[in-house]
Amino acid sequence: MAAAVRLGHGESDAYLLTQGAWRGVREIAPFGAWGYVSRFWFGDDAPWVLAAAFALVVATFVVPAAWRLGPELHAWPAAYLLYLAAVVEPGSSLARFLLLAFPLGAVTAGVVVRPPWARRTWYAAVVVLMLALQAVWIWHTWRLTPPSGWPP
Q1: pLDDT tens-digit profile of 133-142?
Q2: Alpha helices, DSSP H only, in 10-150?
């Protein structure tokens, strides 16, 4: 990706300039955005939130359902999530970016195959969680006052 941007524009740092244009800060450091964005949203709890998110992602990759996908579909979301963590400033577009890590959806569905009551409970809990998070996102977006605010 970076090489294609560099060749297309003739700038050796074109990819970093493009990423910097979309960020809250102009400094581009691999994985750096997760530090200041998490501190903005979670304050002193940011390290714990990041550690929990990292543990959840690792747990998703080590369950037997993940290994049943085969090597390609197991490696793709791992590499893609590593890329996203390195170059993307987390924000409201992150949900859209995560769609390309679709094999993880199959993994999470494969984790809860039995018993049927547990599967229904899991799906209901995920739906309720997603609706609650959407309400939080809308609440924060409605209260946004640019340029001092920061969109979720």
Answers
A1: 888 878 877 7
A2: 14-21, 33-42, 46-62, 64-67, 71-87, 94-97, 103-111, 116-142
